[in-house]
Each structure stands twice: as structure tokens, then as C-alpha cells.
Amino acid sequence: MLRTGAPTRATAGCPAGRQSIGLKAWVVVVVTVASLGATAGSAEAAWGVPYPLPQVHSAPPDQSWLKDVPEKPGSATAGKVAVFTFKGDDVFEPIRAAVVRTLRNQRLNVTAALRPADSPAQYREMSCSSNLAVFIEGEVSGEGARQTVRIRLRSGVTGQHFTSAKFSGSTQAIVGAIGNALWGRVGSAIVRTCSSAAKPRRRESTPMYIEAGSPLDTPIGS
């Protein structure tokens, strides 16, 4: 005798075995997607977040040239020269540094620690007291690749300018030109001036001052 009524779960829809397989498949998909999401998150945490790069600060250029080089006992120098601050030079004074190094390579005793005087007479006095033969000053004008430096040389014997040199270009180009060509332009004049300064010189006499308004011992017309 046949029984009537609602079909059982086994007969309605998918069989029980197939339902179990489908449920397992969905679990695998969910687990896989979750794993991929976690992996992507880990990768983003490891590689996707930018880290600030350490800032590299370049070291300042060598400034040892500013220090006077002590003369070695028994060593002969070609003369003593003072190089003053160049107006308009960069903060680390690369152009003046090139002049100092170039002259020292020619066995000159170069000092970069002095300040300029105010008059030819003061330069002559400074030359005698410090045994300086040449004073060098310079001025830089322009910007970038259109810079110009004029270097002027003053005699310690006369206190007057006796020669000059001019270089143009970028700072790097001027520094290279000074190292290659400065001595060729002014070297012979420096040697002559140093030779003149090495000769015995008589220091200028101290000016005599008369106090005005002091009474005379003997009246005028007596």
C-alpha cells in the first residue's frame, strides 16, 4: 500500500551526499578568500606602506686652508702673501680657497687670517711689521654660470695695486681656471714684488704732532 504525504529530505532537492559536498566546497572557498585577504594585508603591511628615507646631509667642504701653515725650520719660501676675504664669494669661500691653495703650491707662505687696511701707508706699515710682500683682494659678481671674479694684487712695498686677473663662469669653472691659470698670469709679478720686499727697507717715521694753543715761551716780535 503506497504512503502519501510530503516527500522526505532525502527525496526533496539534492541528495544528502551531494549537499555535504556542496557545503564543503563553500567552506573551502570562504577559507581561501579569507587567506588571500590576509596574505594581501600582510604584503601591503610589508611592502605597500612607504617608509621615510633617511636624509643624507653632505659634509661641508674642507676648510683647513683657512689656517696658517707654520713654516718649517730651514725651509725657504718664495715670499709671504695675505689673501683677504673676497666680496660676493659663497658661504664656504671656494674661490678664495682656490687662490690660497694655488699660491701655497708655489711655495708661498700664505695667510688668510688678516683684514685689509684702509690706506697705502697702512699697507706699507703692515708689510714691514709682518714681513708681507703682497696683499690680495677679490670681488665676485653675477650668478650661476655668469659669475666674474676680479683678483687684485697690492704691493707691500708701495701700498698700491700692481696687477690683476679676471675669471668668468660658474663657481666650479672659476675654481678650476684659478688652479690652472692664475699663476701663469700673475706669478712673475708676485715673484718680482716678493724680491723687492725682501730687501732692507726703512720704516716710515712716526708723524710728529704739535699741540695747538699752547703758549709760546718767547713772544713773537720780542
CATH class of the domain at 78-197: Alpha Beta
Give the helices and strands as they follow along the chain: HEHEHEEEH
The number of distinct β-strands equals 5
Measured by DSSP, the beta-strand proportion falls in: 5-15%
Strand order of the largest sheet: 2-1-3-4-5
Morphology call: globular
According to CATH, what is the topology of the domain at 78-197?
Rossmann fold
Q: Could you give a short account of the major beta sheet?
A: 5 strands, mixed
User: Could you state the CATH homologous superfamily of the domain at 78-197?
Assistant: TolB, N-terminal domain
Number of helices: 4
C-alpha Rg, in Å? Answer: 44 Å
Give the structural class: alpha/beta
- Assigned CATH architecture of the domain at 78-197: 3-Layer(aba) Sandwich
